[in-house]
UniProtKB/TrEMBL annotation:
Family assignment from sequence similarity: Belongs to the lysine N(6)-hydroxylase/L-ornithine N(5)-oxygenase family.
Keyword match Oxidoreductase: yes
Pathway(s) annotated for this protein in UniProt: Siderophore biosynthesis
Keyword flag NADP: yes
InterPro entries on file: FAD/NAD-bd_sf, Lys/Orn_oxygenase
Name of the protein in question: L-lysine N6-monooxygenase MbtG
Length: 473
């Protein structure tokens, strides 16, 4: 659906969502049954897609299938992953597969099914600005409808009481590697575009993968599987001290609960910043299964008595990078622990250097005078995912909510799919003031901090007493 339905432009909507990734798609799905909520969502892309360049065969989502768009807030919703399977007559195959973690391509297909069937989503609509209208006491959202070529087709303005930003992340390239991005004739590809350029990469003589997270591991494994034994010519480097597994213990995973999110939000700003860097292994480590698959593939290639032509070096950073002539690349490397330096010449580079939150400043430039910021000039965000704005705005009951842009205030779980439904439900409960989605008061066995509020959990209902059947024989 690309053209919004007729709407009285003088009547403000209850909610405008900007961006349709998993976060706002979850919000739209949970908002759908709320009949009195007038909501619309704009996305500049032509359709929903989720990291299409990383939908590598066999790659799995790192959260269980219950962490879909809605289940952890409303398992009875028609937009659950299980209902997606039922609709496609695939419940029994999924049941017998006995897989708690789905393929990444399947998660993308599930989200696309929701996006294709859910009303209120308008693709090819680019939001240009958000402003506050003090006379009418509403937000103004300016947007441009794009044609199939991405050119402006029509301009529009929507008035709304609430805005939810879900603009997601964008590929990150560290400064030392930026000179490579626009190097003509040299295959330098960010992991986000890996599948699009895989054939070109595989044709290169020597390939270097930069980045020691999950994407780097999956790409290294995929390249390894597509290169002949003895002629792999692959080099994998990363800044971390090891190709380290992701923290996946049961209690470790409780950092991705509402309990921990509330605890983190209440910490002082400087403590939050220290924790954000220190907790890298909770979200930047590598799935143990992927590490095992890499080792298995490397081991298989030693069966003829030789070693594969691969180099795996952690603890290395790229100091500078540039081209040699027009077809080769030179990386200046530094080993962090040894304090040694060397040069690496390669024919192609994959930048598995992660993603970063998209800056909110462009869209929110018109609201800048109203935004309250922290000591690092980042927007302050309250426990209900609302930007702290000037009281002249919030006193009217109008708010700007953010999704997957609040790691500095809400912690490591901000981008995690497992908290998506809870966050969406929290936003809708706050926005409607009616609690359409009752949420649990306690979600972790761990007590984070000495002054955590005591959550009273109601006792389980006692089962009714059963009367034995009388044997009348």
């Amino acid at each position: 659906m690309s053209t919004p339905p007729p709407h009285d432009t003088d009547t403000p909507r209850d909610l405008v969502g900007i961006g349709v990734g998993p976060s706002n798609l979850s919000l739209a799905a949970l908002a759908h049954p709320l009949a009195r909520l007038d909501a619309v969502f704009y996305e500049q892309r032509p359709r929903f897609d989720w990291h299409p360049g990383l939908l590598i065969d066999g790659a799995r989502v790192q959260v269980p299938f219950l962490a879909d768009l809605v289940t952890l807030a409303d398992p009875t919703s028609p937009w659950t992953f299980l209902n997606y399977l039922r609709t496609h007559h695939r419940l029994y195959p999924f049941y017998f597969a006995e897989r708690f973690h789905t393929h990444r391509a399947e998660y993308d297909a599930y989200c696309r099914w929701v996006a294709d069937n859910l009303p209120g989503l308008h693709f090819r609509h680019q939001v240009d600005a958000v402003r506050w209208n003090p006379e009418r006491e509403v937000f103004e959202v300016d947007h441009t409808q794009l044609d199939a070529d991405g050119e402006a087709e029509a301009l529009g303005r929507t008035h709304t009481r609430n805005v939810v930003l879900g603009i997601g992340t964008e590929p990150h390239v560290p400064d030392p590697l930026r000179p490579l991005v626009d190097a003509p004739g040299v295959p330098v590809v960010h992991a986000a575009d890996y599948l699009t350029h895989r054939d070109t990469l595989l044709a290169a003589g020597h390939i270097t993968v930069v980045g020691s997270g999950q994407s780097g591991a999956e790409i290294f494994l995929d390249l390894l599987r597509h290169r002949p034994t003895g002629r792999e010519r692959l080099h994998w480097i990363g800044r971390t001290h090891a190709f380290a597994p992701m923290e996946y213990s049961k209690l470790g995973l409780e950092h991705f609960t509402p309990d921990y999110t509330r605890y983190f939000h209440a910490l002082p700003e400087n403590v939050r910043d220290l924790l954000t860097d220190a907790q890298w292994q909770l979200h930047k480590g590598i799935d143990a299964g992927t590490l095992a698959a890499i080792h298995d593939e490397l081991y298989r290639r030693t069966l003829d008595g030789d070693w594969p032509d691969t180099v795996l070096t952690p603890g290395v950073r790229v100091r500078t990078a540039g081209r040699i002539a027009t077809t080769r690349i030179e990386l200046h490397l530094e080993h962090i622990q040894q304090n040694t330096r060397t040069r690496l010449t390669t024919d192609a580079v994959v930048l598995a250097t992660g993603h970063r939150e998209r800056p909110l400043d462009r869209i929110l430039a018109g609201l800048d005078p109203y935004i309250r910021r922290d000591n690092s000039e980042r927007p302050r965000i309250d426990t209900h995912f609302r930007l702290l704005l000037d009281p002249a705005v919030t006193a009217t009951g109008c708010h700007v909510y953010v999704q997957n842009a609040e790691r500095h205030t809400h912690g490591v779980g901000a981008p995690d799919l497992g908290l998506t439904a809870w966050r969406s439900a929290t936003i809708l409960n706050t926005l409607t003031a009616e609690e359409p989605y009752p949420l649990p008061t306690r979600t972790a066995f761990t007590t984070f901090g000495l002054q955590q509020p005591h959550h009273r959990v109601p006792p389980a209902r006692q089962a009714p007493t059963l009367t034995p059947l009388v044997d009348r024989r």
